[in-house]
Amino acid sequence: MQPFNITMHLIxxxxxxxxxxxxxxxxxxxxxxxxxxxxxxxxxxxxLFTVVLSFTGLTQDRIIKISKDTIVCQIKEVGDDExxxxxxxxxxxxxxxxDKNKVSRIIFSDGKELTFKDxxxxxxxxxxxxxxxxxxxxxxxxxxxxxxTFEHSLRPGNSxxxxxGIIGLGTDFTNNSSEGLYLKFGYKFIxxxxxYLKGMQYSHILKGAYIRPEVCFSTYSFKSDxxxxxxxxxISGGNTRKTNTMFAIMLNFGKQWxxxxxxxxxxxxxxGYGFGSTNSDNPFHYAFLGGxxxxxxxxxxxxxxxxxx
Length: 309
Fold this sequence. Notes:
alpha+beta; Porin; 2 domains; eight-stranded antiparallel beta barrel; 18% helix
């Protein structure tokens, strides 16, 4: 019986060791499994946080205003004059609106961008209008010269002008048979409205009141007047030709009317400084009046009519 007892004792110990080993292994795997579950929970939480963040912050549209302020929102509509949107801090059926002229651009949640321009200065609004004009001085032939002017619009509110005057092509009201030419080059600033209404724009890109800085050049020859001395003897005959070469810097103020994108009337007046080489006391130099006879003050004025193309 004693060997049997020893055998049973050994079997009991072996079972105990086996059970203990199983418990150790189970505890180890349980802790390992719990660690895996914990790590997976962290990964799932990170993924969930990223998804939530993408649906709350990153999917929001952004309106960038002219003033550089930013509106985080959801764009609902981009109309001709207004942008409509909602904001997450307010209930979903509450729709806000902002004038497009106050907006620089929109950055959508998908990364695409939409830019805007002020309706007054957006070239697309004037793309169907004629931007060139050829004008003639309406009354200039009555003053001894005929003038031609070309105007070209650079952009809304700005244009350039170049004028050519043919001296002698007109009435010789000074009776001195003047011949020559004058040139004028100016940059026109067309006045914008004093107040703003939604969607406002120029009725025509070349129409409106303006300020035009200008430089002028005039050169012409003329017959000198008969000159007598103190005793009435002839000193210089009237067949001698002399030349005047004059320059001026002028600041003109005017207004231009455009009719049916085909015909225009331009009126202006201006003042400035005249200087140059003159061989007479006559202050009239065709391109302007003044700048000689001891004073640099010069003035100009005119009416032009023209066609657009």
